[in-house]
Amino acid sequence: MSRVIGGFGISHTPSMGMEYDKGMAQGFDPRWQKWFDGTRRLKQWLDETKPDKMVIVYNDHLNHFDFDAYPTIAIGVAPEFRQADEGWGPRPFPSLVGDVDLGWYMTNKLVRGGYDLTVCQDLAIDHGIYSWLPYVMDTPWDTPIVPIAINMVRHPIPTSERLHGLGKAIRAALEDDGSNDRIAVVSTGGMSHQISGARFGIANETLDEWFLSKIGNDFSELIDLPQEELMRLGGTEAAELALWFSMRGALSDNISEVYRYYTFPAITGCGVIVFDDHAV
Amino acid sequence: MSNSVPFNLDPPGTYIYDGPASTRGYKLTKFGLSLRNPENRKTFLADEAGYMTEFGLSEDEIAMVRARDWTGLIKAGGHLQSMLKVAATVGENLWHIGAHNAGMSAEELQALCPRKVTALPGGDD
């Protein structure tokens, strides 16, 4: 069986990606230098643990899908995933490497296990993954990934309980896959932020830090919270925090927190939390 | 210019994007998403109104795009992520959209952000 060696939750935002490119070329803006520094420990964790593969639960921002058909839950099954053009041209990074065998395997397990995924054999990936990945992993990005995209752009979005269950189903599938791979499960979603309406720019650091303090061992309190409460207090897009429950669901009860960091550079709360999973 | 951020999800503070908004703004959103393609961006910039007419937008919708009326476009069901592509194509960005929504200039909004609030579930707002 494959083993889930741990996982992490991390924010994403378009500016995180743009500021990386600027920062590497001419030095970071002080607000983003903090985030760069704050992600060094996660990069070290990935360098040390060297997961064979990563399952990444993220959300698309109308950069691949459109409303002709917008899947609530989708899985990417392809040898590679290109970078989406979000309207201002792609950034200078390679495509992501996929894992077709694991992708189909997980599709079978998850669909037969109650998660009716839309299967994408061509999936362009946006800042949901491309904004934070350069901070934590050097190119070439040769660690194969299985991306799972969750609708966060139009309500209704999946319930917190459902997303936690998805994580549990991911773990169950991996444990039964007949290989000996060491796998990291990742969830990525912005923390407090709202990018439309007069509440644009709301920044609730207290809420975000509270969330980080609970996601390890007190996550059930977070899952029981109505998503509207996260949106009311942290901005409409704080609903993306529900994605983090999939990462948590894929980990066992026998975890230890490796590292946690939080800062609020501009529009979106930027947090990261890393766990080792000790269950065999 | 106010920095008060209410803890509710009502307009004009918040426009929840739901099914009816998606239906109302289907053509607008589709038009904006077409600008993910660089060739389409060029075509649009060469003749904004003509390009939008091809997408079946109404006169009101075309006028709002021409006026960069980001708030009106969001109320009309244009999804933020789609309108952001329109903004990027015409040389504006998320700050311009947010500032229009918040009733201030982009510079004023940038100076205000992050608009820090403190509240936890179950606490006093």
Descriptive overview:
The complex is a heterodimer of chains A (280) and B (125). Chain A is an alpha/beta fold and 280 residues long. Chain A has one domain (3-277): LigB-like (Protocatechuate 4,5-dioxygenase, Chain B). Chain A has helices at 14-26, 30-38, 40-49, 100-112, 127-130, 133-136, 160-174, 205-214, 219-224, 227-234, 244-250, and strands spanning 3-10, 53-58, 73-76, 80-81, 96-97, 118-120, 145-150, 182-188, 202-203, 255-263, 270-277. In chain A, strands 6-3-7-2-8-1-11-10 form an 8-stranded mixed sheet, with helices on both faces. A two-stranded antiparallel ribbon of chain A has the order 4-5. In chain A, helix 4 (100-112) crosses helix 7 (160-174) and helix 7 packs parallel to helix 11 (244-250). The longest helix of chain A has 15 residues, at 160-174. The mean pLDDT of chain A is 97. By secondary structure, chain B is an all-alpha fold. Chain B has a single domain (19-112), classed as Protocatechuate 4,5-dioxygenase, Chain A (Orthogonal Bundle), CATH 1.10.700.10. Chain B has 9 helices and 1 strand, in the order H-H-H-H-H-H-H-H-H-E. In chain B, helix 2 crosses helix 7, helix 3 (38-46) packs across helix 4 and helix 8 packs across helix 9 (106-112). Chain B is globular, with a radius of gyration of 16 Å. The model of chain B has no long low-confidence stretch (mean pLDDT 95). At the A-B interface, strand 9, helix 8 and helix 10 of A face helix 1, helix 2, helix 7, helix 8 and strand 1 of B. Strand 9 of chain A pairs parallel with strand 1 of chain B, so a sheet runs across the interface.
